[in-house]
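Quick one: structure for this chain?
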Amino acid sequence: MGREYDVVILGGGTGGYVAAIRAAQLGLKTALVEKELLGGTCLHKGCIPSKALLKSAEVFDVAKNQAASFGVNTDNVTLDFSRVQARKEAIVSQLHQGVTGLMKKGKIDVFEGLGRMLGPSIFSPMPGTISVEMTNGEDNEMLILKNLIIATGSRPRTLPGLEIDEVDVLSSDGALSMEALPKSMLIVGGGVIGIEWASMLHDFGVEVTVVEYADRIIPTEDDDISKEMKKLLTKKGITFATGAKVLPETLVKEEGSVTISAEINGEVKQFTAEKMLVSVGRQANVEGIGIDNTEIEVENGFIKARKTFQTKESHIYAIGDVIGGLQLAHVASHEGIAAVEHIAGLKNDPIDYTKISRCIYSSPEASSVGITEKQAKEQGFDVKIGKFPFMAIGKALVNGNSDGFVKIISDKKTDDILGVHMIGSHVTDLISEAGLAMVLDATPWEVASTIHPHPSLSEVMGEAALAVDGKAIHM
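Got it. Here's what it folds into:
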């Protein structure tokens, strides 16, 4: 006979394990099923390892190209990429141990194996019972549940004809495992992941070319952020080709090189590098988990879920990348908490996705919350905008990095903040003030009335807020 649970969570990534912790806090008997390692993509193949590499790239670039301006002589700076990778693995291992400890602390039963949903059976008249094919080869475990949360995440997507071999043509997963850096890298896709990799690899000394289908890089961000990012990365030495339709049938792999062609303004251009990284988005992991045994609907490759995260099977919920939307770790976490609290009968407001911060951890960094200037105008808002550069902020000059700016978009009629967009050093840390301002429905005047410490980078928020009404002090 199977084991019985109030909640079973399929997938132990950021959304899944956070949901499990919240369920345990609420006194629900909880099980979590994970076929690989607790922590999922974010911990092992995404957020954490990529940011560890980005930090090493930043330190190397500062030591090699910027230290002298601080009066620090660093002659003959070299990179030991094996130690870079070892540091990354040590960080991932430490955090993995932490997540494992949290499961034990919460008395959450963890099943290591591939979980599949069953239809109505002798175990339950409702679909959703989980059969776990155990990784250790033991007999399948049957998990009988009152509620199920699907948190199976996503994986890198590719284009037809650009098959990933993780040798010459890489996904972000394969790139994280490189034992040595190539001399050159062609990146197909100029979105968030592509730009982070372009920045990192360039700072490690790799020659980088980015080919993007849209007419600008990071096309989901505000136009001003996109333009500034391209300008600053081009200045560093990264090459961009935008408005480029890659022709996958032209892919040629030879020893030591990969070549692809792209159509730009009706002209076909050829691009060659030692390796190619395909970064064109992610697709949901919906295969092989037994969806066919349920009434759950899949649309455009993603599970359909309501605002409560319930699927068509009301006792089965879905969260995170598998439902699409903002495919971000912090979004999955909060969706997991919201789903569990709905199961427990707690009343919460639906998540407002316009108030969730988005970050790009390149050098320079970029971050945003709310809508863009273009979106605001398309939605009929009469906007007023405040913009303030880091070059007028003393702490930015002290830090040796004064590129970038903060842009605040507000509604001229109500004075409500509609969006905040930043590019520059440490803006992924600064964006939380803007996020809190939006959650609290603060106006630019209220943000400006907050006395920001001097000298600090946070002063840029106060000045940008003043600039909305033309009252900036230091510009």
